[in-house]
């Protein structure tokens, strides 16, 4: 290929790039699609990919990153399960001169030099968009009176859980203080099983809930099972807004069981591989790369379903 002849040691050039990718886990449909996208794009780009699944445990991700450092990969990318506690291992990567890219989720650190770029969605904005979708859903349902919201939070300490709650609350506090109230809020760990279990408990303690805001589709799908088991109609007795837009979410929406979905795109692979190449070549890259997304109401679900890519 045309890039040959520029081999400059570990800097890349004609050499095959080795990328170490430390994935969060396989907790949701979103994650499955994200993993597929990363693997396919690495293959397409001709990189050697070292991939690990941390099963939603930070200590597993830290060991995976350490092993990538020991193996002297060219670039490390990872999707941090929680926001805090990364400085030590990222300093080790820095000392070893291995650039780190954050994908999907962000971290909290006082040292900005510990990663070169962060590619992924704006979760606070997704929270705001979820509140805006709820406004539309309530108007469409002709809902009158108190809005008693149950919130299924994502993994405790994870950026999407913190920020999706924050963005939603921002709109609620600013514009709906008198009529909306989050009456129960708990983590369902972004899983179907978690959503099902926590929703069952919510319905026991607060049988008058009339809205569910779920931080992802999988928890909404689990919750739907508990709502039905309690003899209620999801999408009618309990209006549901969730985030992601995975296929199963769209199916439930086309069946009238979810009222609106805020899209969060997991197909980050191709953009990530471009970024890896630039970083490996020593180019300066954008510090923050945001993904473009849409919002969907129930009446758009059927038409959109055949075109869903994940
Ligand atoms: O929304 C959820 C997944 O970090 C954006 O993680 C991601 C979230 C996604 O488990 O389904």
Automatic annotation (TrEMBL):
Q: Where in the cell is it found?
A: Cell envelope
At the top level, the lineage of the source is Bacteria
The protein's name is LacI family transcriptional regulator
User: Main site of residence?
Assistant: other
Give the UniProt family note. Answer: Belongs to the bacterial solute-binding protein 2 family.
- One term of GO molecular function: carbohydrate binding
Which intervals hold domain Periplasmic binding protein? 25-283
Q: What is the species listed in this Swiss-Prot or TrEMBL entry?
A: Streptomyces fructofermentans
Cellular component terms per the entry's GO annotation:
cell envelope
What InterPro entries has UniProt attached to this entry? Peripla_BP_I, SBP_2_dom, TAT_signal
Q: Which UniProt keywords apply?
A: Signal
Stored Gene3D superfamilies:
3.40.50.2300
